[in-house]
Amino acid sequence: MSNTESVKKQGIMICGHGSRDKDAEREFGLVAKGLRERFPHLPVEYGFLEFSAPNIHMGLNSLLSQGVEEIYAVPGMLFAATHAKNDIPSVLTTYEEKNEGLHITYGRELGLQDDMIEAFQARIYESLGLDPQNPPENLYDTLLVVVGRGTSDTGANAEAAKLTRIVNENMGFGWADTVYSGVTYPSVGVGLENLMKLGYKRIVVAPYFLFTGRLIKRIQGYVDKVAQANPAIEFIQTPYLSDHPRVIDAFQNRVEEIMKSELPTGEESLMNSFKRRLAAGEVDIHHHHAEFVDPQDDTQGLSDFDVKHATFAATDNKPSSVLTPQAHSHSHGHDHSHDHSHGHSHSHDHSHGHSHGIYKHIGHPMGPRTMIGEGICCCFMGQFTDEILEEEKDKIDGDCTKTAFAHK
Asked: What is the pLDDT of residue 376?
């Protein structure tokens, strides 16, 4: 190697999910701002999988235009579910293969780092009017309800429950339990109703979320609904994490891990796991048709690695986002069907790319079906089977996307 050979210019990319809520989009930019302060000599960009701008491609393009050849990419996600495991690696692999000379290293999700736990605890103390630096010995008179995102990924749901136990032991609540705002169970409303039977007169509801969005508004709507029906109980809503300094510390940790190649011994990286599972035909990739698309970006689509191992399977002349291994015809049609009327026809094609697979407990009696007809949120309607919708048809109230609390 020549002594005069230049070192590749480095840059940092934060990959988020995206939200239809513009407040969430703006708040995510605070992470990039925080990391720019921690890495003042490196360009830092961010982008989203869907719904929001800039998308991930646009963020990567910005780094490339600044001469970056070595990108350290981290998922801006609390736990490793489908997006962190499959969707982001697919986008990054595609982009890397279409830009010769570029190298992208993909890091870990935020996870249950001490920094994340301490940020969460600080938000809870603050909501109680307490100083996180001088906390009480215990909070035995208070019930803690942690609200997790809720996904079809069992491991991610379990991490939220683990967080609840850790925080409870650290802070000394009288009792603590976990409810979920997404597809799993128990949902927020029914979970709170059951936990109230324990008899606590003060209940802290703490959402473990990075930023605002429809799910946060869904949580707030249900807490307000339950509180109004139970005026003898004090309900305290903890704010989401946002750009708490310890959250920025956690992002910094993940960036420095990949800079220094410090992946825990014996742990498979998210990218290696993705490539192994894709090659084995075990991966469903959700190419995000709802993504904010840069019209000048021609790097969207399957990478060479994807094409070698999979193709889009089509049934009934409607393209699917499920990849089938070793079938080399590269049919990549995009039927942008955005029918979200959620009336009573419910064809459930939803081929806009935001289908995350059928969760096996989607019909659980304490799960998201309990939210039908509540007037608070209906983002989840497209995930129900026709059988569930038929059973709940008397609760369905027209097009709640125009009237529900979380959609306003």
From this structure: 62
